């Protein structure tokens, strides 16, 4: 009698643990998708602000061409080329900001203030996304998750190279 009780208790606890782990993994995958969506929106806004800066009086003609090309490439890049495109935009913005010390107009400084605020938000979004990916990969690496295939068909989340760039 006690043997059946212990066996049924073990089975119930095992099922509970597997269910709990699968639910946690599902929440982690949702967190990765949400953090990526938030990061993507911020990156698209940064590209839009970069285009506004390129069409303002801040940039010289050569910088305008470089910044416009980098912004359009970042906005239109597919997921395989996104990292390279975002790194290119970061580099173009970095070059422009090094030369933009001679600004005097209020509209120009408003654009640069908006860009600075977006850059800070992007840094936070990257940290949140990287943390979500790391935690999800850690849970997916557990032996019990791999044996019982608790991740289902969800792809393994990854981080991109531009997330380690200095923005």
Description:
The protein is mainly alpha-helical and about 170 residues long. It has a single domain (about 20-165), classed as de novo design (two linked rop proteins). It has 5 helices and no strands. Helix 1 (about 1-55) packs antiparallel against helix 2, helix 1 (about 1-55) packs antiparallel against helix 4 (about 105-140) and helix 2 runs antiparallel to helix 3 (about 80-100). The longest helix has about 55 residues, at about 1-55. It is rod-shaped.
Question: Quick summary of this structure?
Answer:
By secondary structure, the chain is mostly helical. The protein is 76% helix and 0% strand. The longest helix has 53 residues.
Write the SSE topology.
Blueprint: H1 2-54, H2 61-76, H3 82-99, H4 106-140, H5 143-147
Helix pairs in contact: 1-2, 1-4, 2-3
